[in-house]
Amino acid sequence: MSNIAIKVENLSKAYQLGQIGTGTISRDLERWYARIRGKEDPFLRIGENNNQNTKSESNVVWSLKDIDFEIDQGDAVGIIGRNGAGKSTLLKILSKVTAPTTGKISGKGRIASLLEVGTGFHPELSGRENIFLNGAILGMRKKEIQRKLDEIVDFAGIERYLDTPVKRYSSGMYVRLAFAVAAHLESEILIVDEVLAVGDAEFQKKCLGKMGEVSKGEGRTVLFVSHNMLAIRSFCKKAIFLKNGKVEEVGNVTQIISSYLNRTDKHIISFENEDFIAESIEILNKNNFIVETITNGERLRIKVRIRTKVNNPNMGFCIALYNETQELVTCINTFHINSFISDLEIGTHEFIVPFQEYILNEGRYHISLHLNSRQGTLYEIIENCYSFTVLDDDVRRGGIYRGEWPGAISLVPEIKIESI
Amino acid sequence: MVKEEQKWTIESSASLFNLKLNEVWAYRDLLVLLVRRDFVSFYKQTILGPLWFFIQPLFTTIIFTFIFGNLAGISTDGLPKPLFYMAGITAWNYFADCLTKTSSVFKDNAAIFGKVYFPRLIMPLSIVVSNLVRFGVQMLLFLILMAYYYFAGANFSISWAICLFPLIVTLMALLGLGAGMIISAMTTKYRDLAFLISFGVQLLMYATTVIYPLSEAIKKYPAYAWIIEYNPMTPIIETFRYGFLGQGSFSWLSLGYATLVTIILMLLGTIVFNKVERNFVDTV
């Protein structure tokens, strides 16, 4: 127990699906009746797992199921997993916002959690007043905030606006101030959920720098949830990979990230609304075979299969192609073929998106499919729905290929030489 | 190094009576800041500022004097009418504000509660304290009115029961807090009560001796006066009037009864509140 900061044992959390309110009184009574007879809660059947795609008979979903892990003091740990894997639930339980259904967490040291920036900011109050209020909500004493006031104001860069109500702040200033307060909390354990998704690139860098400082310099334990693998890799040593509410893997950060990114279980995607059903996504090689590895000299095609339920469906999609470091390589949308989409009738349609030869660099790629309306209103993002590897065929580069070429893409254009 | 006493555990169930008062104490600065926030944000960007605290009771008193006093001709125990009504309104408002605000505490603060942990009890406590500030301001108005009538030579006198003032304020605060916490805990799942509370409080005012003295109710409706007598707010307001204006039905028995009801509601309220605060985020 000496070096363990957080120890999670058998942690589970159940959520009730569907409408809460109507019918709950009768259910509450049933629950209560089961309890006084010493029986189990009839609505918490054990054994259901959390798969958001399949419908289940029971109304209860286990967002986390029998989670066990330990975190050493001073470690920076990244928590990764797809949307709905239970990451946020885990952080919520750790921050005591909600209680677990079963299980126990023990640990030592003050916890500061940052599930959102600017919680409790009051628009009418000035920046200074909000620093104190927000700091107190996060668990700081007034003296502590007083001592750190200059540092906070300096970090946020809002000195001139300190006595202006925050409703007059630009959104960037607002976020900077909010993060600055949270970043100056004195705690042994810091829990951060995806807050870096806000703010401009420069500020994000600053936040990451500050968080790195916190975990490395001050030796605090940090738990960090993000979809930004670069951010996780840059300052977490370890990572926990959650999948469908269970711990899939724990270990070294690089190893976990690669196993997370390479985990493409199926190419069947399922999304349905009134207009259409997205059925599958595949990569085809020149021989029309579904492949996961392809050379860059081959003509690669992405095939998206969609079943339309109405004539003239209001649909569109965007294929977001990410490389291994989760940088967006390109985004291919369907806006330019809207006139063809409006001609579609009820039936199954395959959208085939060809890629030029010699454009993708060697490496592993991940596709996220964004489904949207014709005007671009987002319905759903299906993350990491297909992964594939591109190998350099070494032909165009004249057979002198030695290892990986740098750069996000690998253009091999015709180079003309004009001697003068 | 981490001290031993900083160890903690998070478990699925907790004891009902553990109020975590030491935690509440550790967050006392937050309580102060929340009260300050309520007070400051109330009159930000208004011209009259804190004067708004006066306007509501003042106009209510004028309307009550006109309608109940002059038009309906309800007796005021021989006291000057505005003074009689303002005494009732000031006390009643404090209780009613505590009750209504506390009863929606989970709903109103769901955004904060869902993102950060602090002892939830801080929120209802801050409501009671910030309303106390408001009550203090309104008491000032009441005292000014008293002074005016005193110099105008009206027929009233302060009695010894004024010493019970701190007790009365505490009872009103705890009664509003206790009942409010019970309702707030229930509204996280069933919103129905939230609708009931807004007009329920209004109706309850008529079952309390705000616009009429208890003696009058007993005289006119001897068969139904027990409803008014069993209302724990009645002895509180009667004692308040008796203390400040020297008129009103005061008895130790009824005040004791009000105290008992308050204690029971507070106990029940804290238990329910404690039970609900752990998981309400999932259902609110």
Question: What key attributes describe this structure?
Answer:
heterodimer; A: 420 residues; alpha/beta; Rossmann fold; Coagulation Factor XIII, Chain A, domain 1; six-stranded mixed sheet; 9 helices; 23% helix; globular; B: 284 residues; mainly alpha; 14 helices; ABC2_TM (chain B)
Can you characterise this structure?
The complex is a heterodimer of chains A (420) and B (284). Chain A has 420 residues and is α/β, with parallel strands linked by helices. Chain A has 9 helices and 18 strands. Chain A folds into 2 domains: 70-261, 3-Layer(aba) Sandwich (Rossmann fold); 268-391, Distorted Sandwich (Coagulation Factor XIII, Chain A, domain 1). In chain A, the strands form 4 sheets. Chain A has a 6-stranded mixed sheet, sandwiched between helices. Chain B is mainly α and 284 residues long. Chain B has one domain (49-283). Chain B is built from 14 helices and 1 strand. Chain B has helices spanning 21-26, 28-43, 52-71, 81-103, 105-108, 110-113, 122-151, 165-187, 192-206, 214-220, 225-230, 233-245, 252-277, 280-283; one strand at 7-11. The chains are: A alpha/beta (420), B mainly alpha (284). The A-B interface holds A 15-16, 20-21, 24-25, 28, 73, 92-111, 113, 115-116, 119-120, 122, 124-125, 129, 132-133, 136-142, 165, 188 and B 2, 4, 6-14, 27, 29-30, 32-34, 36-37, 40-41, 44-45, 111-118, 189-191, 278-279, 281-283. β4 (102-108) of chain A pairs antiparallel with β1 (7-11) of chain B, so a sheet runs across the interface. Chain B: InterPro entries: ABC2_TM, ABC2_TM_bact-type. Chain B: GO terms for molecular function: ABC-type transporter activity.
